[in-house]
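#structure-requests
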Amino acid sequence: SGIDNEKILFHLAEALASISNEHRLPEQDKEKLSEFLLQAQAELAKKNPAWRKIVGTLVIVSTILGGLAVAPEALENVNSAVNYLLGTALEGINAPSDEFTDLLPKPVEV
């Protein structure tokens, strides 16, 4: 599929570190967000990862982080991973139209 798993793993590791270091984030929220990201990492480590699971998990984490308005570095890394995954998936489509590029998630401003 042309996706470089290392790029995604980098963003996930950075997001995990940012969440871990965020003092404004309640411990329970840190644990849940970290659990989601660790599940995405585990899925990514499989021989044939379920990309829908990974993207779905990252969208959930992005939505939660955006709603909490904390950990902007984590949010940025999660959004970068999602945009990379979806952008790479769309590269295989000849002459992508605005119809497809509209499917990419919009960055959440914190």
